[in-house]
Amino acid sequence: MSAVVNFPVKPEARPYLDAFGRERGKSEPDWLAGYRKGSLARFAELGFPSRRSEAWRYIDLRPLEQRPMLPATTEPVVVGAPIHKQLAEIGLAGPTYRLVLIDGRFAPELSELQGLPHGVWFGSTSAAIEKRTDFVRPRLEASTPDGVRPFAAVNGAFFADGFVLDIPSGMTIERPVEILHLSCDSNGGSLHTRSLVTAGEGSRASVIESFTGIGQYWRNDVVELQLAAEAQLSRVVLVEEAAEALHFGEMLATLGTASRLFNFALLLGGGTTRHEIAVCCSGERSRCELDGAFLLSGRQESNVLTTVDHQAPGGETREIFKGVATGHAHGAFQGRITVRPGAQKVDAHQLSRNLILGPRAVIDTKPELEIYADDVKCSHGAAVGDLDEAALFYLRTRGIPGEAARRMLIEAFVTEAVELVDSSPTREHLLSRIARRLAILEE
Amino acid sequence: MLEINNLHARLTDGREILRGIDLSIKAGEVYAIMGPNGSGKSTLAAVLAGRDGYEVSEGTVTYLGRDLLSMPADERAREGLFLAFQYPVEIPGVNNMYFLRTAINTQRRHRGEPELDAGQFLRIVRAKLKLLDIGEDLLQRAVNVGFSGGEKKRNEVLQMAMLEPRLAILDETDSGLDIDALKLVARGVNQQRAPDRAIVMITHYQRLLGYVEPDRVHVLQGGRIIESGDKSLAIELERRGYVVEDAA
User: Fold this and answer.
1) Which of B42, B52, B54, B74 to mutate against chain A (most A CBs within 10 Å)?
2) Nearest C-alpha of chain B: how many angstroms from A322?
3) Cα B130–Cα B133–Cα B138 angle in degrees, nearest 5
4) What is the pLDDT of residues B90-107, one digit of tens each?
5) Structure pTM?
6) Which of A11, A209, B61, B170 sits at 20 to 30 Å (Cα–Cα) from A369?
7) Which CATH number does the domain housing residue B235 bear?
């Protein structure tokens, strides 16, 4: 029994219950406190997921189970040279609207929010809770985590901050909207960030969220996207967490009529990374493209999990995911597309292509289609292989040493996915991050 | 430049393809190695270039005074050996220009020469493209991906022209070409004739030899060189055909 809940709690949830409330300095409105308590109660009931559940069978949660990774306590961070350097490296070179979160908290002195188009609201979640309660509260409460999302429940209980982007109807944001998450906490704590993007009718924007850090920490990020009719949103996620960090990213999106979502994830760094996406195509003719790539070495582990739920007719899904694993690394792709009864003329294609380099690397891939409508075009495919020997030999006969030739082919394999990103500065940025990662991939 | 002595090579399944080849290649000369299908022509090219899947059971190959067979394929290339592939390999995702520039600069570094920057590279490659009548768009595509048969062969000759090898081996570079493409390829090869360079053309037919005159012609059959002569031998072969050796 506990002060918060009146039923038996899972043992692994106990330390989190004890820590509840301790991490926040100032008092919060009652509705938010209630929301947090509800989320915590849900987590207390669920505990961490078991590997027996399909959604969690490919990821090793032992680092979390071995010892509690409690929410980091508020401490003012001294922003020194290493932080500036890291931000400069992972950030886009050109002009952006930039919001920086250090250890999961808004850092106004590092952010660049000036000159936003009139009507666009872009700021920290904590500011939005204070200044735009009527906007944030119903959306947060509507997404009260259900049974299968224990980490979203922990997130609801503990999130410290995040970002909110609200784009009015008809608005096009020309500059990329950039969110940089940097963690400097090396005490083995957890960071919970909660964010929200709403794209009004016919609006257009592109968002890039980059994650990096130093030390050992568990990041638990939840983002919700709501696209109104004919909105177009591009979201790129770049994960370059510290080598010992755990990164869980969960994105939930709802797509209105004829809206279009492009989500691209590039997972390069972090001990364990999980990129989970759930898209609900509730509007007719909505389209989603969920693409990405992971590059793993050493003992890195990555798990990509996508679910697309076509509830309305005429929807489209395209997924292309590329995986590369070397050393003892383990990657997994799980993708499910569901087409509900009546969701006719849905066109959905999913492709998972993987390169396994070396005898100890493993990649699991599990594309799934669940179709309950009869007039649809759906396909899925998965391939796992090694580098093309003939291509390697060809490159070597031109004088290119074996190692460089291998890197060229791996780069080419991943580049094919990155080419799907529309914006060329973003694409160039991602390619340069890949090149940097490849230089140390097989060391 | 290249001395081949009693070279025997077999496939990993044990079948012996080369059965004692003796051949001497000198700088400044152009050679034709002719022979019917299955005579061992492409195996010879593959063994010289260092392809996996062949085992040399006997004999030696000396290239510029070094033991060629102990060198990895990429080192052979950096030392100036070039193979134009009979079937050039498609490499999705690798830009042709990036590939070519990487190859050239790798070889230049190896020779202690400064690398070519993008501008210098472009000036040189444009001249060669013109010579071979290749559109500049070919450089912007992935290596050999979606190229026509003729484009692939011309892309091989372009690489040779850019890399300027000491020893170029052209494996059936004439096959599958129409007459116009053949003339362009021949022009590219002729332009590469030089006193310090040897060119070896491996071919089934005499066709290319009408445009690139060889100094020496060798006939390969059953894994051995059975006949040698000057360019008149190629013409004679065209007339009388290859004598098919009894397999038994």
Assistant:
1) B74
2) 13
3) 95
4) 999 899 999 999 999 999
5) 0.88
6) A209
7) 3.40.50.300
